[in-house]
Amino acid sequence: MIYIAGQVFGNFVFAMSLRLARGRQYHYLTVGTINYAIAALLAVTWAVLSDIPSFDPLVILLGAINGLQYQLSLVVLFTVVELVGIGITFGFIRLSVALPTFASIFLWGEQPAVLQVVGLGLAFVALPLLGADAHQAARGKRGHSLWTWSVLLTAVLLSGAGLTAAKAFSVWSTPDYQPLYTASVFVAATLGAGFIWPMRKRFRLPGWRTASMRHNIGLGVMMGASNLFQVAMLLSALAILPGTIVFPLSATVGLATTLLGGMVLFGERFGRVTAIGIVLTLFAIVLISVQ
After folding, report:
1. Among 55, 72, 130, 280, which has the highest number of CB atoms less than 10 A from its own CB?
2. How confident is residue 261, by pLDDT bands cut at 50, 70 and 90?
3. What is the Cα–Cα distance from 257 to 89, expressed in whole angstroms?
């Protein structure tokens, strides 16, 4: 369980840093790009210093899928965090554990308990409730519910795809290849950031001065280190525990800590319907965690 605790901690630091990067004193895409570049530098160094058996193309491919998902998710999160804050955003995205959990059951033969099936059902019930505040906020800003739900569901699907790639790596490879996989994740994410950067003017980012660049770098470095740490912890947990335990358990604790962090550090609040959705999500993920 130490690895799951480490993954939750790394993800919490990343989430709070991302919320901070959304503020006016930072340049979001600059912080995001530095985050992935730093994580890539650390991961490549780890890979070079490790005794990797060989350069397995499958490991590199799975890592690249996960890394591109990270970069795309960073762009999607830019919009979602503005609508509802970091707590509700990550509460909604935590439901993405359903994808790797289903994959663990139907692709890799991990047998679910009855309570796990009930938990998955609760997760789908919670989905529209978690999106209630996002829907209301977007309706006031854009008047387009289809756009709101497309952004929210895209975030869930992207996150689920990345987690499924990590699960596939844990099944089809060995822990010896973790440094290569992790390096592939963040190199791909950094390259993806390079493609996104030319479109930065479309994001309506606040103005920023060159004098604030050190703050962007500092926050990006913290995000990158925590990002690398949480990925390494997730892979280590998947190496010794089934995905039907790792994903829901880390999601449950991660959701609770992120919600608490959003409320305490950023004064975030949410409506009654969303609160019900959060409670159902917690119950759902706990039930999914039952073996």
Report:
1. 130
2. confident
3. 13
